[in-house]
Write the structure tokens for this entry.
Amino acid sequence: MKADQKILESIGNTALVQIRNSVPTDCGNIFAKLEWQNPTGSMKDRMALGVISRAEADGRLRPGDTVIEYTGGSTGASLALVCAAKGYKIHVVSSKAFSREKLDHMVAYGAQLTLVPYDGKGITKQLILDMVEAARKLALEPHTFWSNQLTNTDSIAGYFPLGEEIWSQTGGKIDAFVHSVGTAASLSGVATVLKRRDPKIRMIAVEPGESAVLSGGQPGAHDIEGIGIGYAPPLWDASLVDEVMSVSTAEAKSMARSLAQKDGIFAGTSSGGNVVAAIRVAKRLGTDAKVVTLMVDSGLKYLSTDLYRSETIK
């Protein structure tokens, strides 16, 4: 390791581990990329570096500009990290629908934070639309760059290295990749790389059961932070996906707790949902199958929520 390594050079090259104790014996092998090993504890560091670097390169982002974004938290912290390292200001629009840790994390990196009103009814399509509109208005100010994660294709390219890492770490022996859909950038980025390497690899998208719009259902409130915006995200590319699975909030939270208690893998709710879906796929493919999914972020981002908050501590 280079002693003079810069913080942004530490993004990526995360470990791939096998999940054993939370996986039943009648299914294939499930492997997870530990994306919390990125500097902010989230895979979003990858897209943040890609988006900011590409905007700098083509002149959309210039010295003295302020980056604007709407986010449930992880993207905001990742963008704030990159902005801090590169010397930009950042203004984030978010909501109290998301964990306090995530909001505090953004501010810790120096982000200015604006919170849209929250009715306490969970993550809904209207909440996302309100956040987007608030960010759009901020981006009308001069000397701003709106990274606009839901429509920015640069974020897809930010995940190409993740796909290459998975291919390399599995030795090209992978039957399926399973991952949840927020902006759809990470799924699209990984799928683009893996499908190019081997078109037979199955790509499985995961969405909240309470808001299964990609499966043809109706939008609804759920509590799986970071995914399920209530409508098909602009970056969603159905041609890259072989199947869409829905996982309920309760299933995702239960699995996240199991991963922590049985496997020592401490991750967030969407990561739990990823594993629930990965088990379904691995059962279908058989005991020799290799299924890869992502531990999207660290459980440390959810300690104040009912995912991990202990009622025994007063």
